[in-house]
């Protein structure tokens, strides 16, 4: 387990829950990073469908395209025209929900992985490490009291 020391007193600039370990952000900074980006056009529609499907059904591009009445390739082309791509939109939504589920709902890593339609726990853990630099288990242990 990583031992982290709070340095709230030294910061004094309104950065609550900061840690002395380089690379570890405050809980509020992670929340800010996990905000779902503002989107317009087809990107907004994709995010809307993804929101509806979280925890209910697959988040695969084929299913999202079908819900929108488009072919997978047409959806990809339209997203590309907006300088967006499906994987990034889905990842932003998954990151948002991952933090919410781990901290606010106290869900297990396995449950979050399944709810967010990852193929397995390892895939979720690798994605979460890419987003935060921490494993989901370590993240939850660090921040379970801050939400």
Could you please describe the fold and organization of this structure?
The chain is mainly α and 147 residues long. The protein has one domain: Homeodomain-like (Arc Repressor Mutant, subunit A, Orthogonal Bundle), CATH 1.10.10. It is built from 9 helices and no strands. The longest helix is centred in the middle third of the chain and has 19 residues. The N terminus is likely disordered.
Q: Which descriptors would you attach to this protein?
A:
about 150 residues; mainly alpha; about 60% helix; globular
Short description:
With 147 residues, the chain is mostly helical.
| CATH class wording | Mainly Alpha
Structural class: mainly alpha
Shape: globular
Distance between the termini: 21 Å
How many domains is the backbone divided into?
Answer: 1
What composes the largest sheet?
A: none
| Binned strand content | under 5%
**How many DSSP helices?**
9
Order of helices and strands: HHHHHHHHH
Average pLDDT taken over every residue: 86
CATH superfamily: Homeodomain-like
Share of helix, binned: 55-70%
**Low-confidence sequence ranges:** 1-18
- Shape-level CATH architecture: Orthogonal Bundle
């Amino acid at each position: 387990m990583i031992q982290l020391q709070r340095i709230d007193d030294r910061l004094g600039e309104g950065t609550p829950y900061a840690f002395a370990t380089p690379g570890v952000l405050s809980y509020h900074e992670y929340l800010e990073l996990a905000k779902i980006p503002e989107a317009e056009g087809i990107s907004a529609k994709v995010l809307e469908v993804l929101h509806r499907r979280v925890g209910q059904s697959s988040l695969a591009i084929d299913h999202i395209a079908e819900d929108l009445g488009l072919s997978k390739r047409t959806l990809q082309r339209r997203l590309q025209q907006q300088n967006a791509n499906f994987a990034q939109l889905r990842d932003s939504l998954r990151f948002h929900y991952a933090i919410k589920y781990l901290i606010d709902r106290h869900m297990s890593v396995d449950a979050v992985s399944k709810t967010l339609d990852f193929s397995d726990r390892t895939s979720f853990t690798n994605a979460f490490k890419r987003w935060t630099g921490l494993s989901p288990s370590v993240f939850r242990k660090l921040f379970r009291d801050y939400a």
